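Tokens as discussed.
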């Protein structure tokens, strides 16, 4: 079964979601994301190892290292945030992955974070908003803006916690939430510390070393 790749070949496991953001409630689950390295010899077969695995724990999802690196190079917000989230477990390969996390960064994060937030916004019904989804839409924009301005996503939302939780409880009028979203989105057009392109060479060197170690 594919689930055997986690934890047998896990190199990194982090806590994500509300408990990582500091936005948890008593009912919040523990969301986990991770990276595993499939044995290199398995790639020599016609049937390749999986690119991702769900489980074995509830709310756990892991990527094979090559898939993870590819998504991170594309500035996938979910994947990038994993590299700054609280670590539960890291092997030497996982520690090295975290050590090169800035190599994945590029200005394309301007588009990916705003595009992901816009997709969430379009799924919301102003007449009957799903307030938890609205909160996470705003949180994503705050995280992306911090990345653009400081070179790392904002995971802990302590500064914004009270207002975000008020959104989650439905205590903030929809018009105010929409105005907040509009204001945050517009700020992505400001100055950025992110490089134009990621350091693909550094990432590829890491991937080659990791594959060789898994022979």
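Sequence:
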């Amino acid at each position: 079964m594919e689930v055997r790749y986690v934890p047998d070949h896990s190199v990194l496991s982090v806590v994500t979601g509300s408990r990582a953001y500091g936005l948890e409630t008593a009912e919040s689950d523990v969301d986990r994301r991770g990276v595993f390295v499939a044995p290199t010899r398995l790639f020599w077969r016609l049937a390749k190892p999986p690119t991702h695995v769900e489980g074995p724990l509830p709310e756990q999802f892991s990527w094979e290292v090559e898939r993870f690196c590819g998504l991170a190079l594309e500035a996938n917000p979910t994947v990038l945030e994993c590299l700054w989230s609280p670590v539960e477990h890291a092997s030497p390969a996982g520690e090295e992955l975290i050590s090169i996390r800035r190599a994945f960064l590029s200005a394309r994060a301007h588009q990916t974070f705003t595009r992901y937030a816009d997709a969430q916004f379009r799924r919301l019904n102003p007449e009957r908003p799903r307030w938890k989804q609205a909160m996470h839409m705003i949180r994503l924009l705050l995280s992306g803006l911090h990345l653009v301005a400081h070179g790392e996503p904002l995971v802990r939302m302590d500064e914004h916690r009270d207002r975000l939780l008020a959104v989650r409880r439905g205590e903030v009028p929809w018009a105010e939430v929409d105005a907040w979203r509009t204001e945050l989105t517009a700020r992505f057009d400001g100055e950025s510390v992110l490089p134009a392109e990621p350091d693909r060479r550094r990432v590829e060197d890491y991937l080659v070393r990791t594959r060789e170690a898994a022979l």
